[in-house]
Amino acid sequence: MSEVIRVGRRYTIVIPKFARRELGIKEGDLLLLRVEGQKIVLEPKRSNPFKVLEDVIGDVYSEDRDERVAEEWLKNASS
């Protein structure tokens, strides 16, 4: 499906509802823009969920390493 859209003030465009729904684009999402010949191509920039999880929780839990860190913290906290 295609639709004619207008370039607005400050060169803004509105992505039609059918395209937003089909591609799962939400307000605040990032899009990758590239020029191919005389075409403008927009693609949703999907994040890697494993990278997001790593950023949120940090390194994967390691019992040996993390217990040593906790023990050192407790020693220093009680001094």
TrEMBL record:
Which Gene3D superfamilies does the UniProt record give? 2.10.260.10
Whether DNA-binding counts among this entry's keywords is yes
> Which keywords label this protein?
DNA-binding
Q: Where is the SpoVT-AbrB domain?
A: 2-47
| GO MF assignments | DNA binding
Top-rank lineage group of the source organism: Archaea
- Per its UniProt record, what PROSITE patterns does this chain match? SPOVT_ABRB
Q: What is this protein called?
A: AbrB/MazE/SpoVT family DNA-binding domain-containing protein
